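Structure ticket #2291
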Amino acid sequence: MTATNQSKYGENPTRGRNPFNSIKVFVVCHGLLQLSQLLLSGYLKSSISTIEKRFGLSSQTSGILASFNEIGNTVLIVFVSYFGSRVHRPRFIACGALIVCAAGFIMCLPHFIMGPYEYDQSIASIHSNTTDICQPDSLNQSPSSDPCVTKTQKGNKDVLSILFLGQILLGIGGVPIQPFGISYIDDFASKRNSPLYIGILFAVTVMGPGVAFILGSAMLRYYVDIDKLPADEIVLTPSDPRWIGAWWLGFLVAASVVAVASIPYFFFPREMSKEVTGESGEEKTPGLMDAFTSNADTSDPLSLAQFIRVFPRVLLRTLKNPIYILVVLAQANLSAMVCGLATFMAKFLERQFSITASFANLMIGTINIPGAMAGIVLGGFIMKRFRLSLLQCGAVCVVGMLSCVVLALPLLFLGCSTQQFASPQADPHLSAGFWHNVTECSSKCRCSTSAFNPICGADGVEYISPCYAGCEDLNFDDKEGKLLNYTQCRCITSPGSGGSARPGSCGTTCYHLFVPFMVLSFLAGALASTSQTPSFMLILRSVNPAEKSLAIGIQFMLLRILAWLPGPVMFGSMIDSTCILWGKKCGAKAACQYYNNNMLRQRYIGLQIIFEIGALIFFCAVYGVLRHQDKVKKENEKNPETHKLNEQQESLKVVPSREKEAAT
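Resolution: structure written out below.
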């Protein structure tokens, strides 16, 4: 940095002890900020099924919610690339972090404005004042008047508006954090250390979602209204289908961590002294602005109007690169698969193996995401150890995806069928023999149409409430404050059943398949991730060095448009299509209560395999193009005269176009 710049930005070489004038300190701070940002953005996905149940959302709606933060990010990412080093990057990062923090606090507001969580209950404790058993002589039906429906719909709209606002702000706030952080490190770190520092940040990027799922596992063990009810009045347990965890608490924790992590950025200088490591002759790497200039020797920056005018031309030139576009399409398929896993895998495990939301998040955070990290590290190690060529990088991607598809296919058959359940409102077209109609035996009970208090009958059938099982009495332990069982149930008539039922879901009988399912999903995810580093290198090595920054920016923009925006919505709609019984709240449609598990598994895993096959096809195309290019290169080496003539002809075509660009 020149003395003029030092004076301008308040830098003094003698102040070497200032910790905020060290790029190493910046790397540490930025790693913590990226981790906390991803902790907040990933936490929504870990609690998505709980939010669905709490506010009666469909999976399609929650999918739209999960992808909504990509909108603000996608719109602004190109302009962030334009501003580059023209702004005080650390302060812009700090402002973005504060917006992310505000988004986190906004996301938890619905818990405080919607009132306490209400659920169907029998006489489960001395604190209960409602019953859900069969009472033929009284009207035991929940009100379904128009004011009730209107209030419910308005409450849901308010909740969705707040959550969508939070997601928009989360996307906007996250825009400057990674691009400005990486460019700042690349500008002031030494050439030798810059790749190491950026590699550390990418490793933290992979760790963030894992920490988010572990946080979700911890928070969902607490009851949603832990701040409103004394501990002795909380009668539900995490294994109860009606249990709602403290989804909002994780947003408070993550937002607070982001706020603390943003503080150091207000003290970093706009520019700092270049890190010195002793190497000589460091070369300037062509940057984003070089990609937009027709004359590489000019140092005059483009104006915003010039940027907007030139950007489509450079974008078109980048997209014409066959290797680039094929790799991006392969990565789009992989990203669509990943967003389906990240958003709904916990819900899938809950429904498929009858485990709690907390345990499902713990498994994802400690098995699936570390598997993806291991695959990325393995791919990078293979590249470094064997110094792979472009053709060999393509081969690694093909082998990794092919192995992933082979290991993913058995997952279609590892799962549980839907438990036998009884309800008068199930969809007979999707129930496939799992549904029993109990309208006749419970007709005199006047049961609520929105009842959902599952019990497990002695006949092995799960009834959606004691009322719909025709249960007229119950056994309650006053000393322990615990409901023992229901008795005199009219609908439970199988021999030896005694007409009794125990509270809670019957669950599934194939939990022994859970371990092999997780092992195969771990291996499949790890093998798919081995293509991450080689495919990234294919992009970097296949574009003009002056356009690398732009190519990466376009890559992330396309991945958001093609995968991260439509992916969660696509998976959510697919999950909704397998619902057998929709819940109701004051006559309005609420979250799904029962799915056809076989259909859910086939469609959810099948859609992921389709995306994996799509990635495999595009990687095979990449390998084919690279092999053709390699063959042409070897032929040119054998016939240097023909190659020289072709180069001369090509240069005659290129020169006029460059002159035209310079004139423009």
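Closing remark: The chain has a mean pLDDT of 80.
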